[in-house]
Design goal:
Structural class: alpha+beta
Distance between the termini: 54 Å
Order of helices and strands: HEEE
Number of strands: 3
Largest sheet: 3 strands, antiparallel
Radius of gyration: 20 Å
Strand content: 15-25%
Shape: elongated
Amino acid sequence: MRTLQLAASILLFAASATAQLILRDDFNYTNALTFNGWFAHSSGGQKQIWSQGEFAVLN
């Protein structure tokens, strides 16, 4: 019975949750992302991420 109540509570809470856009970047620049205001972290310098217009490429 408690499992059913817990599942119903989770479903009710999840149904009322809303999402919001935090960050959007259209990659409308070229070159490495670190040249355009992005920061390398977590093994930064191993491989660079480049932007080629509308998409990003891992080099």
